[in-house]
Amino acid sequence: MAAADIVLTGAAVRTLDPSRPYADAVAVKDGLIVAVGGAADLREWQGPGTETVELAGATLVPGLTDAHSHPVWGLELASGTDLSAVTDLAALRVALRGAERREGWVLAWGLNHNAFGGREPHHALIEEALDGAPAFIRLYDGHSVLVSAAGLRAAGIHGPREFVQRASVVCDAEGRPTGHLIEHAAMDLMTRVLPRASFTERGARLLELLSGMAATGIASAHVMDLGGDALELLASVEETAELPVRLRLAPWCMPGAGDEELEWLIAVQREHGRDWRVGGVKLFMDGTVEGGTAWLEHADCHGTGTDAFWPDPAAYSAAVHRLHHAGVGTATHAIGDAAVRHVLDTVEALGARGAGAPVHRIEHIETAPDDQLGRFARLGVAASMQPPHTAYTRADHSDEWSKRLGPERAARAWRCRDLRDAGAVLALGSDWPIASYDARRVLATALAPRGAAAGHGGLTGLMALEGCTTHAALAAGESTTAGRIAVGYRADLTALGVDPVKAPADEIADAPVPLTISSGRITHRT
Ligand SMILES: [Zn+2]
User: Fold this and answer.
1) Taking the C-alpha atoms of 297, 301, 304 and 308 in order, what is their torsion angle to the nearest 10 degrees?
2) What range(s) does the Amidohydrolase domain occupy (predicted)?
3) How far away, in angstroms, is 310 Cα from ligand 1 center?
4) How many CA atoms lie within 13 A of 516 on its CB side?
5) How confident is the model at residue 426 (pLDDT cuts 50, 70, 90)?
6) For the residues of 51-100, what is the DSSP string, one character each?
């Protein structure tokens, strides 16, 4: 028998493999798990070239997956000054006054809508702090930006625009832009004038970012974007380095996509590198509650939120049908109740699907009514949710998200537990850079949801762990190759200083991460 590359001993192993839930040792070779058992059983795998890693006191679990992340696009989303700690206008002005300039621009991100204290975002609120500088400030949800007067001028934005997707250049009563640009097409008006990091710089930042993720136990990530030169960037990074986190990337299918674009989305599924591959297509059924662009069955308190992101929702359904019949799975961003319903209706209309059919999943699901919960399991639609987002809301419902929805819908915030109890597959993620990528924080907030979601029960420790392992694999159609510690499975492994199934949320959040292995490579150790 050939010797293993790595043998892990000393840890309590939680395999999540129903045929052998617990073990003491694991052997890894050529990127795969080759043996799972007692320490004595694995002695025969030890050879002269084998590295033995002693993990006394740790719990070894399948490598954690972040089922919704933006590490590549996020390099741009999260460029400039981090405003995530800003809670009011005064603090925003202080932060902008001290912000670093890049080619004269103030770039910032992570701003909470609550910082405006219920007012509409308007550049006039920040001009004095900017002293005439062009500024591009991303709101935390990634679905809108506030641009200063000089920034608007630089991009030639002087009034309202028409888009093929639900997007807008917000204007005042006189038709002058307020600087608030909502949704992708409107934000894209700025792209050509913004300063941008070089290709090499972005490659270096990607590696650094992925190393940071691996240090929190992340072995793989479902990346919900693949735009611009991302394919070239990944290929070029892999020429000289190994990715610390394996990536599965889903390019976007936006409203207005014609045959040619759909053909490209299907063809690009073949693209892959050593530790990345294209997998599935990302679509948007709506925007965000805070931005007034979530698609709701009934309007929010401002009278907005009754429109889908696809002006013709039937065109969305047609795109999903086309992708499905080409064997391509979809992941649809759907936050509002009407958006969730429409995606479920769309999958229902695909008819019966056999084993091996592409997996369709819904991202976010921030407020779901009772009558939709059981449909996930019945239709085989995976739910993908981000428990850390609950921290942007408040338990007393005084936050923008809760106020817009009103008490009845805010009471249905992030129903992770209800979906699991209704039999759904539930994958968990961070949505970095919308929230911290720390996998321990994803697990901890799944156990103990925050803000508006604090009222209902969290997941059990096992459900939360499954959300980052077996259920994440199911949501990616990879359940026969990933997500558990079993012979023949991908060697993705995470060692934690606590048992995530039994430890309380606060201990998980602070747990040491002695080791992370991705595709058989040690990507982090302490
Ligand atoms: Zn996202």
Assistant:
1) -30
2) 51-524
3) 17
4) 25
5) very high
6) EEEE-TT-EEEEPEEEEEE-TTTHHHHT-SEE-TT--SHHHHHHHHHTPP
Q: Is the pLDDT at 137 greater than 70, yes or no?
A: yes
Q: Residue 140: what pLDDT? A: 87
Task: Tell me the backbone φ, ψ of residue 218, rounded to 5 degrees.
Answer: -80, 125
- Span 15-22, average pLDDT: 97
Average pLDDT over residues 325-349: 98
Token digits for 17? 């493999």
User: 144 forms bridges with which residues in the sheet?
Assistant: 182
Per cent of the chain over pLDDT 70 is: 100
Contact 210, 243 (CB under 8 A): yes
Distance 446 CA to ligand 1 centre (A): 17
pLDDT at 418 over 70: yes
CA distance 287 to 102: 29
Q: What is the dihedral of CA 221, 438, 137, 256, to 10 degrees?
A: 20
- Residues 223-265 have pLDDT tens digits of 999 988 999 999 999 999 999 999 999 999 999 999 999 999 9
**Which residue, among 45, 44, 40, has the nearest Cα to 5 in the 3D structure?**
45
- Phi, psi for residue 106 in degrees, rounded to 5: -100, 115
Task: Give the confidence band of 410 by pLDDT, cuts at 50, 70, 90.
Answer: very high
- Residue 224 CA, ligand 1 centroid: distance in Å: 6
Transcribe 124-136 into DSSP letters: GGTHHHHTT--EE
With contact defined as beta carbons under 8 Å apart, do 427 and 467 qualify? yes
pLDDT for 152-206, tens place per residue?
A: 999 999 999 999 888 999 999 999 999 999 998 999 999 999 998 889 999 999 9
What's the rounded Cα separation, in Å, for the pair 321 and 311? 18
Rounded distance from Cα 177 to ligand 1 centre (Å): 27
Could you give the CA distance from residue 95 to residue 81 in angstroms, rounded to a whole number?
Answer: 8
Is 509 within 8 Å of 464 (Cβ atoms)?
A: no
Q: Could you give the domains of the chain? A: 65-72+199-518 (3.20.20.140), 80-193 (3.10.310.70)
Angle of helix 337-348 relative to helix 313-325, nearest 10 degrees, comes to 40
Residues 254/284, Cβ–Cβ less than 8 Å = yes
Q: Is the pLDDT of residue 1 over 70?
A: no
- Give the separation between CA 442 and CA 511, rounded to whole angstroms: 13
140 CA distance to ligand 1 centroid (A)?
11
